[in-house]
Every structure is written in C-alpha cells, then in structure tokens.
Amino acid sequence: MKILVIGGTGHVGSEVVKELKKRGADVRVLVRKLDVKSQPGVETVIGDLLNPVSIEKALEGVDKLYLLNAVTPDELTQGLIAYNLARKRKLSHVVYHSVFRVEHFKDVPHFASKLAIESAIREFDVPFTIIRPNYFFQNDASFKDILTKMSVYPNPLGLVGISAVDIRDIAEATAISLTSDKHFGRTYNLNGPVILSGPKVASIWSEVLGKEINYAGDNLDAFEEQMRKQAPSWAAFDIRMMFQGYLERGFVAEDGDAATLTKLLGHEPRAYEDFARETIGEWQKLADSRAAA
Questions:
Q1: What span, in angstroms and rounded, lies between the C-alpha atoms of 202 and 198?
Q2: 83-133: per-residue pLDDT in tens?
Q3: Are residues 194 and 272 in contact, defined by beta-carbon separation less than 8 angstroms?
C-alpha cells in the first residue's frame, strides 16, 4: 500500500508521515523542490498542485492519498485538481484535511475553499475520510518573544474560547484513518480536551513561565494590522475573519467529540499545558545551542 502525502513537509504533514512510518506504510511525499529535506525511508516526488501533469505523475502507483493543501488564494483550485486526479486514477481511499465547523464559517476564505472540496469529495465514489481539526496548539510556539519579552498572549480567542488540539493527535488520527478501511465515509472532529479562552491560555503561560502573562483582548482591527506585518494582506484578512468567527459563532467541541477522538487514538487527547511546557523546553534548548556555538 503506497500513500501519497500532499502537505507532508509542513508542521502537521511531517507528523502524519512519522505516524504512517510507525505503522509500516509505504509513503511518498509531494515536494516542490528537490532540496526539501525529507524523512528517512520516505520517497519524494516533485510536483505542483497547479500543474495537473505533475500531480498525475506523482499519483502513479499510489493506492491512497492524504490531501492537505496550504492556505493560499487558489486553495480551492489546488485541492480540486488533486482530488479529481485521485478520482480519475480510482484510488482506494482519500483522507482530506478540512477544518472544524467548516459549514458555519462560509465567510472565511480558506474555510469556504475546504467546504467546497468536502462537497466534491462527498459527491463521488472514491472512499473517503474527512478530518476536521480545531486550531493547533503548535501555532502558539511562534509567540516566544511576545510571551517572554512583552508578557502578552496575542491571539483573540475571546472569553468563550476554542477547543484547540495538538498536531500530534491530528497526525495519529490521520494515520489511523489512512491505514484502515474502517473509517470510510467518516468525518472526525478533532478537538482538544479543554476549552481554551484568551484569559485561560494567558493563565497557563503565566504558570509555566513563572510570571504574569496578560491577554491582549479582542481588538480584531489591531490584530489584523499586526498580522499584515508578518503575512500578505489577503492572508491577514483571512485569519482575521477566522478569529472573528471564533468570537461570533464559537469553536468549542461538540458533544461526543472528546469520546470519539479518545476511542480513535486509544488515549486521551494531549493537553495544552503539556504543550506549553514542552515548548519552553525547546526554546531553552535552542538558546543553549546558540550560546554554545
């Protein structure tokens, strides 16, 4: 059984590849350049999601597809090219990486793209599994300077909060779904075990860092302006609309989600506190290595 992983060099996809290798899967990863570092024992193939010829070549000899395409202005086109070629080649299973509560966020560009791709996948006869993760814990690992120097947690999670999840749990759930035919036609909400509001996350970082961390609040105009310093304007607006949706409509796990994910994984989902402690350890290791260089 050969599995093509699209998105296999990113934070989530690379963890999916690790979990697939643990389960003895034959993995091929799509890369855009040959110089992209791959994991040991993993085949790489060059391709571009906007070049159907390259994707069809990447699918040669493949039985299953994991489709995680990046948030881009043409995400819908990229996703449908990959899916339609998988359908053309009559793959035995497609696992699609969507997003939690996607049908309630039709005003968020990348959610709308995922909803359209989900709709296409459900329309045809290729066996599928759809995973719908919440916000990732690991997104917050990029806040080192803001947390440690400014003593602020910046994401506008609001007072109701979200059920954020660890990417390692997402990766495990994906690999389990890909390596069994028991998950055909299933849609899995992947949520963490605790609701995380803005003040709650700030309090967790206060505890693990040993100093007071303040919640920046819910000013979305200021948030978008800050985002534009790090990302293209279209991306900053897209992410702003996502957080606005969190505040307006909520992003909290539905009844039964925790039990379903625990059963799927065979263990309880990881906790944000543990992620925070691990992240501080990684920051310290990096600081120590730089000091020793």
A1: 6
A2: 999 999 999 999 999 999 999 999 999 999 999 999 999 999 999 999 999
A3: yes
Residue among 171, 58, 49, 63 at smallest CA distance from 117: 49
* Residue for token pair 């790489």: 44
For 215, list phi and psi in degrees, rounded to 5: -85, 130
Dist CA 190 CA 193 (whole Å): 10
Asked if 84 and 76 touch (Cβ cutoff 8 Å), the reply is: no
The two tokens of residue 112 are 């709308």
**CA–CA separation, 12 vs 6, rounded Å?**
11
Q: Does residue 99 contact residue 111 with C-beta atoms inside 8 Å? A: yes
Instruction: State pLDDT tens for residues 215-248.
Output: 999 999 999 999 999 999 999 999 999 999 999 9
Whole-prediction pTM: 0.95
